[in-house]
Amino acid sequence: MSNQNTIIRFEKVSFAFTHNKQILDEVSFSVRNGMKVALMGQNGAGKSTILKLITKKLHPDSGEISIDRSLTVATAYQVIAPEDISLTILEYFKKYCPLSDHEVKRRMVRVLEAVNLKAQEDKHVSDFSGGQQVRLLLAAALIQDPDLLLLDEPTNNLDSAGIEHLTAFLTNYQKSVIVISHDAKFLNTFTKGVLYLDSFTQKIEQYAGDYYDVVEEISARIEKENRLNAQKARGIQENKDKANFFAFKGGKMRKVAKKMREKIDLYESEKVEVRKEDKPIRPFKIPVQDNFPNDVMKITSFEVIQNNKKITKPADIILMKNRHLQIIGPNGIGKSTLIESMAKGTLPGLKIPSDLQIGYYRQDFSTLNFDDTVHQALSQALIDSGSNKGEEHLRSVASGFLLSSQVIKSKIGSLSEGQKGLVAFTRLVLLRPGLLILDEPTNHINFRHLPIIAAALNEYEGAMILVSHVDEFVWQIQIDDVLDLEN
Questions:
Q1: What is each CA distance from 349 to 99, 312, 338, 360, 437, in whole angstroms?
Q2: Dihedral, CA atoms, 340, 345, 348, 352, nearest 10 degrees?
Q3: 116-125: per-residue pLDDT in tens?
Q4: Is 127 exposed, middle or buried (0-12, 13-18, 19+ CB in 10 A)?
Q5: Quick one: CA torsion of 310, 312, 313, 316, rounded to 10 degrees?
Q6: Helices (H), ranges, 276-348
Q7: Which run of H or E residues covers position 313?
Q8: Could you tell me where the beta strands, DSSP code E, fall in 344-430?
Q9: Residue 389 to residues 217, 286, 394, 404, Cα–Cα distance (Å)
Q10: Based on C-alpha coordinates, what's the Rg of the chain?
Q11: Residue 468: phi, psi to the nearest 5?
């Protein structure tokens, strides 16, 4: 297949989930063989929907999607499918590569090495950490040896070593890639084009270059459009002033006034619509519970996983008000398991006050009931906080996290992963916790929101435990103590 061949073409493709939830409006773009393209846009704009249209899991309402008949496509989605969790590694790879056991095992060795993961074939998918499961998702796509690799947020849950390994792999990958990610630094290392899904117009804008080039080009265009409209606005005002002046003169002057008004209409018609940018969330504060206990948490021991064995380590950690603890360690050492046991109060060696309000942000959003509407989830958080604030406060906080009245009515399970993250943060604000426990809070979140979230966490006056592999995010937050599970 020649590198000049167009392997995918969207021609005026429209798609809506319901009559009032338009995702794509006459979208047109093309991808050539060998291209490595970033697919970017606001949380909930419809990026994952485009991948599902390419793989024919969804079908357009109108327009045409042309895909090269010889093209093989494999997708690494954001999370392991629920039906795959109980499979062994060999069963998992055979599901996505239905060949002989011998051939699957041969390919397994290669793809597991490519994603820097060691896994015995009889080990279950459920035994792996979140970061390791991300590597399994990628390996399951690679084992199919596709012409086109579709990646949906591949860096989520990966530690720095994993991201570095994945970046090097994709840089050297010889086939086509379309990747969804909010990690601009990661994308700019290997992509040479951007498909930008505008959440306001529901259209795709196609650009050459990396995302920083796109941001610069968009900013220059907005500045030019604003400048042009400012000139038109001055012309309109000048002609309005003249028209009003001549209209009072009477006689022939009224004809002059009429011409002035015609000029005003012309200037109005020449004004251009300025491109709207993705809106960041509003700056916010996470309030702290009233009657805050003195010693929030005391840890005398904890467990980690090393060489596939649980090891108990002694500790002497006291967490108090306005103290922020970061937990670090490589994928698979047990960070998520540790902080989950802290949140549930089941960790041996843990002492925690019974009246402590805990706000727990899980990387897989399993603290949310996906069958609930957003409104139900937020209302419950308000009830749990003991606050007497009502519906107006709930909707005001939700609005700050870009949760519109339409989104509030939706079931949580129907939202994008990024929108689920914003719901989780909205709940934390309404809950007023004394202890925040955050497991990879940057996952799935639009990079425009991250500095605002970091600022809120930095200013949080309660006790906090944070797990994050994103150094640029952590550097913006007050960290008082670090617990390194590896050392």
A1: 48, 10, 12, 20, 18
A2: 130
A3: 888 888 889 9
A4: middle
A5: 130
A6: 335-344
A7: strand 309-320
A8: 350-351, 358-361
A9: 44, 15, 8, 19
A10: 27
A11: -155, 140
Mean pLDDT value across residues 410-433: 93
At 28, is the secondary structure helix, strand, or coil? strand
Cα within 13 Å of Cα(393), Cβ side: 13
Average pLDDT, the chain: 85
Report the C-alpha gap between 480 and 453 in whole angstroms. 18
Q: 186: Cβ–Cβ under 8 A, 6 or more apart, which residues?
A: 155, 163, 167
> Model's pTM, two decimal places?
0.70
Question: How far, in Å, CA of 132 to CA of 103, rounded?
Answer: 23
In the chain, % helix, strand, coil (3-state, to 5) comes to: 40, 25, 35
d(CA 416, CA 434): 29
Query: 89-96 and 130-142 are packed helices; what angle lies between their axes, rounded to 10 degrees?
Result: 40
Q: Map tokens 């995010």 to a residue.
A: 473
Query: Would the pLDDT of 273 be above 60?
Result: no
Would you call 357 exposed, middle or buried from its count of C-beta atoms within 10 A (0-12, 13-18, 19+)? buried
Lowest-confidence segment of 67-71, 272-276, 354-358 by average pLDDT = 272-276
State both tokens at 397: 């906080």
Distance CA 61, CA 11 (A): 12
For residue 440, the 8-state DSSP code is: S
pLDDT-derived band at 256, boundaries 50, 70, 90: low
**Highest mean pLDDT (candidates 223-232, 239-248, 351-360, 393-402):** 393-402
- 447 or 437, greater pLDDT: 437
Contact yes or no for 311/453 (Cβ under 8 A): no
Tell me if residue 75 falls in helix, strand or coil.
strand
| Whole-number Å distance between alpha carbons of 376 and 427 | 11
Cα distance between residue 47 and residue 45, in whole Å: 6
Counted residue by residue, the chain has a size of: 487
Residue whose tokens read 């209209």: 247
What is the pLDDT at residue 22?
Answer: 83
Residues 6 or more apart whose CB falls under 8 angstroms from that of 146 comprise: 72, 73, 74, 175
**In the predicted structure, residue 354 carries a pLDDT above the cut 90:** no
Question: For 43-51, what is the mean pLDDT?
Answer: 85
The helix/strand/coil state of 126 is: helix
Instruction: Tell me how far apart the 2 most distant CA atoms of the chain are, in Å.
Output: 98
Residue 129: partners with Cβ closer than 8 Å, 6 or more residues away: 157, 331, 332, 333, 334, 335, 336, 337
Which residues neighbour 87 within 8 Å (Cβ) at sequence distance 6 or greater? 95, 124, 125
